[in-house]
Amino acid sequence: MKINKILPILSFTLIFVSNIMAQDLKPYILAATSHASLSEISYAVKANLTAEGLNIIGEYCPANDSNRKVFVITSDELKTAVKINGGLTGFATALRVGITDENGTINISYTNPVYWGNAYFRDNYDDVQSYYNSVTEKISTALFKIGESKNIPFGSEKGLTVKSLRKYRYMFGMEKFDDVVKLNEFENFEDAMSKIDGKLAGSDDLIYSVEFQDEKIKLYGIAIGGEKGEEHFLPIIDITAPQHTAFLPYELLVVDKKAVMLHGRYRIALSFPDLTMMTFSKIMSTPGDIKNALKAYTE
């Protein structure tokens, strides 16, 4: 690419990063749209993310929907941020890019790094902000080159302030970030790995895993199948355009000798902060169903 083409892209990206830091935050960003085929866009997305130094660690079609595709990515920046803080910040190891065919238009979106970073690192986010600025620039640069550029935050009409994200819960009395669900406890980290890796071996439900041996952290992204899984709950809650395809897969985290997951009433609400109580009531059993599905891999 010629230098006169590179400069506008870099300038646009830097302005975009500055803008999303200055406003209330939304969970996703619509990067671009296209009228090419989903398979063509998927190929381009994969190539561009890799070219920007981002590591694609998993991919799948959420809810077995052929109109949806997710690429799960990580980077040196994200891994460094997790190593600095450890513990439950292991959930921040991965971000997700969603590709969705919505009535003939291919929407390319991704989880807003600044939104999820503030939610997961909370008051420690300022210590890792430079890493998040870097990964945000890489993702936006990669996806800006595909189709018609949009770079529009979405997923909440008004968005959330940094302060509210760092202490987020859907409503009073509901769970916050650190109110995790304990799935099981083992003798040590190695026993946890042996059990969970053995259960997931050869399973199509395992979308990705990332391990931090020294920190005794391992993050798994797992597709939730069955009649109570993604095919059941995703169509109920993902009812606005653009669709929230990058919401999935759900995560299981091992920290030292404990296997945990973010509570459904936190993780789902954080992904759909404008979800009405009426809609939430239609998936009242889903947090428990997800727990049961993930717990099975720890027993």
- How does the major sheet shape up? 6 strands, antiparallel
What's the CATH class of the largest domain, please? Answer: Alpha Beta
Overall form: globular
State which percent range the strand residues make up. Answer: 15-25%
Indicate the structural class.
alpha+beta
Characterization of this structure:
With 299 residues, the chain is of the alpha+beta class. It has two domains: 3-158, 2-Layer Sandwich (TATA-Binding Protein); 170-298, TATA-Binding Protein (2-Layer Sandwich). The protein has helices spanning 3-22, 38-51, 76-85, 113-121, 125-144, 162-166, 189-200, 230-237, 264-271, 277-281, 286-295; strands at 28-34, 55-60, 68-74, 95-102, 105-111, 148-154, 181-185, 206-212, 217-222, 250-255, 258-261. A six-stranded antiparallel sheet has the order 2-3-4-5-1-6. The chain has a five-stranded antiparallel sheet with strand order 7-11-10-9-8, with helices on one face. Helix 1 crosses helix 5 (125-144) and helix 2 (38-51) crosses helix 5 (125-144). It is globular. The termini are far apart. Residues 1-13 and 15-21 have low confidence and may be disordered.
Task: Give short descriptive properties of this protein.
2 domains, alpha+beta, 5-stranded antiparallel sheet, TATA-Binding Protein, 299 residues
